[in-house]
Amino acid sequence: MSERWQRVRHHPGAVAALFLLPAGFGFVVFYLWPAIRALWMSFTDYNVLRGSGDWVGLQNYQDLAADPLFWHSMRVTALYVVLNIGVQTALALAMAVMMDRLTRSALVRGVLVLPWLIPQVVVGLLWLWMLDPRLGVVNHLLDWVGIGGQDFFGSPAQVIPTLAGVNTWRFVGYTALLIFAGLQMIPRHLYEAAALDGAGEWRTFWRVTLPLLRPVLALVLVLSVVGSFQVFDLVQVATGGIGGQPGGPANSSLVIYVYIFRHAFNFNNAGYAAAMSAVLAVLLAAVTFFIMRGLRGSRSDLA
Amino acid sequence: MKLSWRRRIAVPMCAALLLVAACSGTGDGDKVTLDYWLWDDRQIPQYQECADAFTAQSGVEVKITQYAWEDYWSNLNTQFAARRAPDVFTDHLAFYPSFVQNQVILPINEYVERDNVDLGQYYPGLAELWVGQDGKRYGLPKDWDTIAMAYNSTMLAAAGLSREDVWNATWNPSDGGTFEDIIARLSVDENGVRGNEPGFDATKVAVYGLSFDNPSNSASGQTSWGNFARSLGFELLADGNPWGTDYQFDDPRLAQTLDWFARMVKAGYLTPLADLQGVGYVSLFEAGDVALTINGSWAISSFTGISGAEVGFAPLPTGPQGRWSIYNGLADAISANTAHRDEAWQWVKYLASAECQNVVGEKAVVFPAIPASLKIGEQVREQAGLDVSAYTTYLESQHTFLYPVTVNFDQVTQAVGAAVDEILLGNRPAAEALTAAQKQVDSIMGR
């Protein structure tokens, strides 16, 4: 027994495999197997209630290509992602740089992530009340300063920017912390050298901070882009009002995951929902690839 | 809300960890515990009382679980998928066709015959609603509802209107009849100008004459356009209800009705769609921003519970073809996956019996399915000084029509809900939006 153990111990590969076993088990059972099963489902007319489905070949994919609501929800989601990522990343970067240059107080960092600690469903309900066109506190404030009330979740033009705003409010502190961690890896002496060469704050930011932050920014972008594509609970709770159909008004906030959920669990159309998920997975893999490649995310200029 | 989300996460986890005993809902030993679900929190006390009496008689325990309407049906679907649905649950006409189609609820006709349940004891028509296309019975009626209006008495008086004015209101889609006049007079802008007076500012309304539930939640127009269109002679299904497939959303009478609603939004007499996408019409009524609402009889207690406001009820206005209300009834259904079929049937039978129905009557939250039990409820309400005859008047005049019972109703609601949104937003004329919606509905129904 002990002799065999000795042999295992001196074999680094075997030890690594041993340590990877729990995570590997979880990956296979909770990720790989469901993913394969979902892919199989997308070629069937699987019905959740019936618990079975018959092989229909590429039918779901053909239906999807001809489904105007699928493409509509993709466009809605894309708009949301662009707004959300643009505003959130710019704000988070500004906050992180300010923290890095001005204060390293743990209290400030703690306060920044407070909204992130609130569950998304609670966030949705909270903002649904605060942004109610007639009874919400936000419109009372806007009225008071003379801007006048807005429709927010109730307006087809404003609902996606509003959702992006709420999500930014929740995640910006978290994103800022990730970038802040990246900033701390930049050697201090580079800033000293830049100062000696007479570079101002602005020039230092563009010539030193941003290039060296690139790998971290690429990672943050991938994480937040993939996360934004998956927006679901916020839309499900905050749109359509209390008791109404989420995704409204007039499908203007019908993001892809709400549409997938509807097909899977309201229309009992899990095969079709799985096909949509498969297309989305391919799309997200492509987006991730282009971000990592475009920003050369796996290489650092520090080395 | 919070709880149900936790539960929603718990469902797949339990499904994955079937072996973990902690997830198991039913107790061990010989004692049977039935899981029973409902969505209306105001009805928990009455069914708890029924459950206690039932347990005392039969020794079978009943565990009541409640989820809000928005979560109830998707929770139920995931539970069905995991074959762990509650033994007995409150069922709705909009959803039971797909349960029957997929055989996840039990037919009970053999039980009904064996135990000689008197189907004639219920209000006419209620029991037949739960007979599927296969001729089998899938539920026993427990209550019914109709649609009428709640008004703020103080605002009515301030507008120089009487209770009789609202009770005798007439409506048509061209000039809106006296009903349009009533909601115009009830509307007040921020300068105190009323809707029927010159200088009324429709963009700065302080009190809206009329409001209702977000209409995108059902293709029946149950608490909004449905009853008005019916009073023009409109029928939702050309080939009969229940179990029709030939929807008529492109009927010009429906377009006229919805155009009238869109005109009322524009005039500032009806809450704009944006306000219906927020916290909702009951909160607006409570805040004094709305004078009159269309609502179902199940919501009566939300209005009578408002402190500081005197609330009265009136039936919907009379249209060219009379005064009509949609008529809907709920039933209790048994899941096919239950391990306790006989006990579940005993509980369903008890819920639909005079004994439990009398308790439902006493609590006076909803209208029980048995007339004698409703009498008890009317006495309770009379003692509280509450007159709900607005809701029962349709039964006396036999001007009720059934909630649509068809397959794929959820998909139909998605198509029609978006079209109605566009009409109320003023983005599209009703005829155009509804014709487009009808094309989608036809393909959903396979026509």
From TrEMBL, chain A:
Q: Which PROSITE patterns match?
A: ABC_TM1
Does Cell cycle count among this protein's keywords? no
Q: Which family does it belong to?
A: Belongs to the binding-protein-dependent transport system permease family.
Where would you say this protein principally sits, based on its record? membrane
The source organism is Micromonospora craterilacus
Name of this protein: Sugar ABC transporter permease
| Domain ABC transmembrane type-1 residue range list | 70-291
Please name the taxonomic classification of the source.
Answer: Bacteria, Bacillati, Actinomycetota, Actinomycetes, Micromonosporales
A single Pfam family, by name?
A: BPD_transp_1
Keyword match Flavoprotein: no
Localization recorded for this chain is: Cell membrane
Q: Which GO terms describe its cellular component?
A: plasma membrane
What parts of the sequence cross the membrane?
A: 12-33, 78-99, 111-130, 212-232, 270-292
Query: Mind listing the UniProt keywords for this protein, alphabetically?
Result: Cell membrane, Membrane, Transmembrane, Transmembrane helix, Transport
UniProtKB/TrEMBL annotation, chain B:
Query: Which region is the signal sequence?
Result: 1-24
Main localization (coarse):
other
Record keywords: Signal, Transport
The record ties this protein, via InterPro entries, to: Bact_solute-bd_prot1 (IPR050490), SBP (IPR006059)
Origin species: Micromonospora craterilacus
Lineage runs:
Bacteria, Bacillati, Actinomycetota, Actinomycetes, Micromonosporales
The Swiss-Prot or TrEMBL record describes its family as follows: Belongs to the bacterial solute-binding protein 1 family.
Keyword Disulfide bond attached: no
Q: Which domain of life is it from?
A: Bacteria
Q: Name one Pfam family in it.
A: SBP_bac_8
On whether Transit peptide is a keyword of this UniProt record, the answer is: no
Localization, UniProt: Cell envelope
Q: What is this protein called?
A: ABC transporter substrate-binding protein
Quote a single Gene Ontology cellular component term. Answer: cell envelope
